[in-house]
């Protein structure tokens, strides 16, 4: 367990409450999938649990299982939508582990032979490009 409390004002909590916009890809009773606004590759998307949890260290087992089912569904759709050679799945825990937003989230990034991930610059992608990529992924769900 983590010693830090869950922050109800993190960006993903705000998205789940409808307070911030996003490019939604998929939603079920336990999970929500969306485009990453600072993508490291085309089709970079995220899966989050609806129940509050900082990360893998404190998430309940049912939420974690639901997240991974949705990760598999989105990974298959994103790989197919972009004709990718593979897919990278990333998940970070606590600041020392590279976590920046403290609500459990899993990155899904379509990958292509010989193409490196873009650096994480903190710059947001063009919203029209994200909308177009989201539509491609939704078409393969």
If you average the pLDDT, what whole number results?
A: 96
In N-to-C order, the SSE pattern is: HEEEHEEH
Report the portion of residues in β strands.
15-25%
Number of strands: 5
Kindly, what is the distance between the CA atoms of the first and last residues, rounded to a whole number of angstroms? 34 Å
Roughly what percent helix? 25-40%
Strand order of the largest sheet: 1-2-3-5-4
- Tell me the radius of gyration: 14 Å
Derived structural class: alpha+beta
Task: Summarize the structure in short.
This protein has helices at residues 11-16, 61-82, 127-138; strands at 24-27, 31-35, 45-49, 86-90, 106-111.
List the helices and strands and how they pair.
Blueprint: H1 11-16, E1 24-27, E2 31-35, E3 45-49, H2 61-82, E4 86-90, E5 106-111, H3 127-138
Antiparallel strand pairs: 1-2, 2-3, 3-5, 4-5
